[in-house]
Amino acid sequence: MNNPMGSNMGTSNDGKSTGSVIGIIIVVIILALGGFYFWGQKLDNKGTENEEVATTTEETADLEADLATTSADNLDADLNNVENELTQ
After folding, report:
1. Is 43 among the domain residues?
2. Domain housing 36
3. Measured between alpha carbons, how far is 51 from 63 in angstroms, rounded to an integer?
4. How far is residue 25's CA from residue 31's CA, in Å, rounded to a whole number?
5. Cα three-residue angle 71-75-81, rounded to 5 degrees
6. Residue 53 zone, left/alpha/beta (φ > 0; ψ -120 to 50; rest)
7. What is the pTM of this model?
8. DSSP state, 49?
9. What pLDDT, on the 0 to 100 scale, is given for residue 54?
10. What is the pLDDT of residue 58?
C-alpha cells in the first residue's frame, strides 16, 4: 500500500528537465552578452585606428616632433571641402 518509489518517480524527472532548460538559457544569454561585448570593442577599435595622437606636453622638442609628423599635403583640398560644406 505504501510505495515510496512510486510516489517520487514523476516529480524527479520534471525537476531535472526544468533545471537543464534554465541552465541552457543562462549559458546562451551569457554567450550572447559576451559576443555583443567583443563586437562593440571591435567597432570601437575601427573608429580609433585612423586618429592621429598628439602629445599633451608643452615642450618645444615634443611640439616640433608633432609638427614634423603632421601631414599638410592635402590641407588646401580639405579646407576647400569644409568651405563647400558650410556654403551649402
Report:
1. yes
2. 14-48
3. 18
4. 10
5. 135
6. beta
7. 0.38
8. S
9. 59
10. 76
